[in-house]
Amino acid sequence: MPPLTPLADLADLAELADRPRAAETPLVVVALCAAWCGTCRDFRPAFERIANARPGIVFAWADIEDDAEFVGDIDVDNFPTLAVMRAGVVLHFGVTLPHEAVVARLIDALSGAPLRPAPGVPDEVRALAAQLSR
Length: 134
What we know:
Helices cover 34% and strands 20% of the residues. It is of the alpha/beta class. The two termini are 19 Å apart.
């Protein structure tokens, strides 16, 4: 699998749903960005390096306009915004600094975290997580 999976392909990954236990389900990290966002363009190579260094985690890059059929009405005010989920549970949703070390630490911390929903996650983000865990 390439380091960044297109969001459309993520929705079709049967292996995400075929794991017998949530602990064995891979972490899914979705970067919500926009093609017109310079910060996103600058951040993408760092996000790809993070993905390459963590082959057991599924990484996706979602353009909020081009991937609108999947991200729906998720309200993204600032970029980049990360959604981190496992087994249909959103562990983190929010704007992040576009710094490689900061994002890497966040992902590493969440990869070993218990399966607890993040507080205040919008319904649209929970719906995306549910869609990606089917």
